[in-house]
Fold these 2 entries.
Entry 1:
Amino acid sequence: MAHAANLESVLSSELERATSVFALQPEPVHYVALEAEDRWEFSVRASDGVLAQSRESHQRTLDVDLRVGTPELDSTHPLRGFSSLESDNRDLVFLPIDDAEFALRHAVARELDRAYRSEAEKIVMIRGERSVKADEEVLAPDFEARPPIQARVEVPELSVDRKHWEVLLSELSAQVERSEVVFESNLSLTGGRSQTLFLDSAGTRIEQGRTSVRLSASLQAIADDGDVVEVFDAFDAHSFESIPDEPAIRAWIVKLLDRLEALRKAPRGSPYSGPVLLTGRASAVLFHEVFGHRVEGHRQKRETEGRTFGEYIGQSLLPSNLDVYDDPTVQKWGSVELNGTYAYDDEGVPAQRAVLVEDSIFRGFLMSRSPLPDFPHSNGHGRRQTGAPALARMGNTIVEAKEGLPRAKMRAMLVSEAKKQGLPYGILVEDIEGGFTLTGRVEPNSFNVRANTTWKVFVDGRPDELIRGIDLVGTPLVAFNQLIAAGDDPEVFNGYCGAESGWVPVSGVAPSVLFRRLEFQLKEKGQERPPLLSKPITRLEGT
Amino acid sequence: MIALTLATWAYAADVPSDPQVDTLVSAITRYKAELALPGAPPLYHLRYHLVSLEQAEAEASFGGLLRISADPYRALGVEVRLGSPAFDNTGFGGWENGFGYTGLPVGVDANALKLDAWKLTDRAYKEAVEQFSRKSAQFDPPENYPGDYTLSGPQLYLDPAFVPQTAPDRLSTDAQTLSAAFVGFPLEVGSVVMGHESGWHWIIDSEGTKVQRPMRECTVRAIARIRTQDGAVISDQRLWTAQTAQDLPATAEMVEQTAQLARELTAVSDAAPISEEYVGPVIFEDQAAVDLFRYLLVPQLEGTPAEVPFESWFGDLGERSSSVRMGRRVLPLGWAAVDDPHQRPSHPSSNAVDIEGTPTESVVLVKDGIVRDLLMSRVPRPDRKTTNGHGRGAIGQRASGRVDQLRVDTPKTSTEAKIYKQGLKLAASYGRDYVLVIRRLQEPAILNLEGGNFDGDANPLPPPVFMVRRYGDGHEEVVRGASFSGVHRWVLKDIVAAGRRVEGSYMAAAQGSADSLGPIEGMPTWISVPEVLIGEMELVPVPGDPSELPIVPLPVGH
């Protein structure tokens, strides 16, 4: 799959034609960018011991970023109060998957027209609003003009042997369904190859893309108390070479089944306040939710945002041996390919390492082309899902500990801290299924990290006890103030992050971290009884 | 007709053994016997729907292919009824009522089906128990309550002649070719969606029913939208639907009709808007005549009682209004209406059995203008206790009596010239030298293109798209920009004259409104009616929105 042969000429000529029309309008356009994406995707899924789905799809889409006004004040400026009800949704614009020129030209022209009319409406409201609303707390231009660049990044070819995966996943699914405890299961292989062509009115032209492969397993059981117990795990990579081989996949499935069975039997935990040790993946998710979203540049200039770390520039935020940066140019961590890797962001800016915390001192933000007073330049973190406007987002968020401690030492510190606090146990979080964070001002500026493999580590030396049904909650400033140690054992979390600019692939790398005190709350619980009748086990070994 | 119908029915021995059907038969035996929570009413009826289709779809715009897909579709539906036919868990509260469905893996086999039936039935049974208790707590049946269901014994059916077809190769090329007919016109939207599905729908129940219903449909919808100089937006469509691609019109014919759609819309956009209220006679021709009966007559003939609402803290759930007019006049003297699902056998609405496994019947609904019978599923009503095989709807929802193929007959037809003459005479009494002729109404299923939706409760007729003023000398003037005001079903009693016969198709929503459907979703429905002159209707001007006028001129092409 590739772009239409006439794509660039049509985009350029329609942009030129529209620009000449915009020049005659009372509201000036100061910037337009067009990005066309050609995306081929595949999906193979097995459930109930058989093939559930196997398909490929091909689509082409268009994004138009058009700004009316001036870089100082343009139509992307956030509206406040009642005016903020103005819709900024835009429909996904599909382009023909063949080379039909008229259809392509028509789609591009129509979207340019829609974008102009929408932005011209907004700038009028923005100006009106500024005449009556109080001055904003953070004054900064809306857009950073940049010199044009031209770049072309080769996108590796990717193909899939669907037949092979159909057989393998179906066989593994049959193995999973032999378990009496499994209620629902899905084993999936998804991925694809996308190519984008970015052109803007400043003369930038970038061709790039990405390939992705994800092997995932989702298993669900219903505990005797009605709780729905889920285990999810995935491997993300950019090629099949980095996906585990068949024996490793088989071993992985066995491990997940064991974990599901253990979790189903595990008791529900209770609300808790005390020391918590998060191992690498869990730690990476915590940093993503609690820290990463709060250092997204655009949040620092919105009146509705909590701006948690806004006043911390130049101040100590974390223990002195911790550095945090986000670097989309890093392709691998050890042998693990990172999901948040890219060469240029969705605003045509080269990806760069954004130093966030250095030697405990908070240094800066993730920046798109929406400047802040002391951060006038993008660091290549303007990202979006097709169909949404780009905002500052994470790529590969990396936490590094200098002179990190061995895992055993971290565990000993957890026990010691629990003893110190007079608690019978501390909590160790081994894995996390995701989480969410609230960054605004109206709702509590808090986080909820969805722990799914959590252990009580007893101070009296009893064996650790697996528990379920509790989530890690808290507020960011208090939480980071309680961080007392970091390990020497960085691990990678690969995933997809959803926020205002859609879903984007991300990675987190972090070592184990120990908090003196964090809080757990009860997770919601399923209310249905387990199935009234026994599971019809139909695929016995050897049959 | 009787002979034809009987010929397609199979005896019990003719319904072949099928591992998946056998699995569901075993599941029914197991669950009917074993699903019995203490204190819960007995499970008296259990039905499964097993659907296996090959679906394909292509969409093109102005000659360019936007997407093409070909996917198998497998689904399992369940209906759990607790209590007794006199009072059960259904017909109440809308959701979580003992009915449900789940998608099945494309490679589903008997073992996978057993697992899915176990999960789905367990959930449906629990929901049925809860729903029964909610209904019992809130609903005290009146004395003449007809009950909730009728048992009718085992039904056995298959169509031995039916062989599922693969999607035709022409799917994407036809979509491209048809949509290319929009090039050269100043349209905002010029798209074509073409879909094909073919396969089976098994109905298996605890009464011993084993019905294998063929499912076959090939549908094309061409959609165009134009913006007028005052910013009004006008959209229209052409819809073709048949059981197979071979039954569709030839591509060249559809291309011509697509081009005609573009020409009509262009003419409408160039027309002057109506500036004053119109009160006077209206002639409904072509698709507008079909739609007039679709919106105003059909709801009066679909007999399944509305659900009793669950009174929740955020309002009544599950209530549906009923417009049924049994025993009342709905059409002028001498008029008749019959729904016979066999009258257009190549249309996808032609079914030998309904989705409850009941053989479909020809039903004389209206005689001499008065409603004498209703379209019924197995849900009884006080004045109509039994089904006549018109149960339709989505898998996993209660079937209701719906139109399949409706024919409306008039005792007397007039020529076109006579109708125009009569219309002009009536118009003169309102001081007008023309009569309004409406040929097409807006299709709700494409209203979402404009971000709008059709509120059938507020105004049962969608606005006209193509209408003309017809003058005494025979010349016509295209006008635009009006919507109906104060329309009521009584309009049909004001039919003054009827003319030539027209027929049309539409995709009915299983529930809710048609504008929630995608271009080729819904239940295919066929209607044949005469064109009519209505004595008096009111239309009010609807101004355009100049703020929506394009800034960047759209390419027109050639």
Note: Chain A touches chain B through 51 residues (CB under 8 Å).
Entry 2:
Amino acid sequence: MNAIEVSGLTKSYGDVHAVRGVDLTIATGEIFALLGPNGAGKTTIVEILEGFRMRDAGQVRVLGFDPHDEGNAARQWRNRIGIVLQSTSDSGDLTVIETIEHFSGYYSNPRNVEEVINSVGLDEKAGSLIRNLSGGQRRRLDVALGIIGNPELLFLDEPTTGFDPEARRSFWALIEKLRGNGTTILLTTHYLDEAEALADRVGVINDGKIIEVSTPAELGGRSTAQALVSWRDGAEIKSLATDNPTSLVSKLTAQFNGEIPELTVTRPSLEDIYLTMIGITHE
Amino acid sequence: MNKIPSAISLGIRRGGLEIKQFSRQRESVVFTLLFPVILLVIFGSVFTDTIAPNVTFSQYFVAGMIASGLVNTGFQALAITIPLERDFGALKRLRGTPMPASSYFIGKAILVSVSMVIQILMLLGFGAIFFGVDMPTDINKWITFTWLTLLGSACSTALGIAFSIVPKSGRGASAVVSPIVIVLQFFSGVFLIFTQLPTWMQQFAALFPLKWLTQGMRSVFLPDSFATQEVAKSWENGKTFVILVVWLVIGVFFSVRKFKWDRD
């Protein structure tokens, strides 16, 4: 069964059509990244899936449940999902371990509190009041509260904003660990390297519509896009876009009789592809 | 697969957490718990007259302050702090967990009850030691006191949660809520003797629970002979009960139906 099934989803705020007919299927165990500029409708879609917002039209099933439904079934459903919101803060008068321990009591089968603290790298801060944590440490606490219930499906809304590079790497390692447990993850992010490192598939959304869903390697025809070969020829830098970089390089090797000065072969990065996609749809 | 904890057991856990959080906020502890005692010291020192045979102003004032404490620790505190929690995003995060709304409400009710008990003990202790406030000796008066406190706390908690949907932001909440409470305190005979107020003020106050709580507390702490000096020439405790229940139902209805977890 799929973890998330969405078809024909629409949502407007007054005259603003935030989501305009979105179809989306996310398989169980998949890590899916939703990319898009600010105001594209990412957060609206995710918040509808999380049960925070009402939709205007369309079908939505999350773990087989309609997030719009209320009552005891909704509690059972929330027991199976984890949510890391974009910005949360607290009065800060509790310690890290008190907060995580308290939240663990909400779920039927919570993960071990010490283990979760360790996996987000907050061991040394376990006894600190939340008010004394740095921004990045608070974010890690948010993630800890999202996974304490041992969710089958985890929503991560821009989880690593404000992380230093080292913290991002260790966060990525944590996500890989969750993937190993079979957790389905829906991630929104601004960082394309993050999507590339983590996601099985990415969906690019702009102006309330999904433009393309693909693997990071194949998005926007990236895998078949021409490679750019550049090298130094005397005083000038030459470059050539080609479908066959290997044969060009071997031709150049023969021409230079060995080492080609300042040789680079590049393919468009995910960011190049993404920016092109967003740019095109703006016209 | 274990079962999800029940709403009541989670509510008790939330109550413990609320108390822990509250006790670590020194300003609010001082303001909420000590403020009524400070007022008692001020008013008790300024007004030293007796207002009827065997009834000092302090005696009258303690009854009013206990009633008013119910409104401060419940309605006022919750209608100010819940919008703050909403602004922080703390409520939205809770909404995303299997914790039901009822557990959150139970937790708040526990916090209100505990701070109310502390406040009552401090008011009665200070009143008895420094201002000669007499404690009732009749068991029936203590029974009245118990149901008034329980029903008053519940009513005040429910109305505070319900009113938390009114302030647009946490920062503005105090400016919306505090004037309402202060006006009601003056109109309901907390700081001033009720029967000396203009009739229109008395009639306006009679629409709201504070006037009835104050009158009920006077029935506990003032001699029965004083009942004849009330507007209705009696304590009207039956009427007080009904009016508090009606407001409780209104508060619970709006809390359950209209509670806002998110800013927008």
Note: Residues 57-88 of chain B form the longest helix (32 residues).
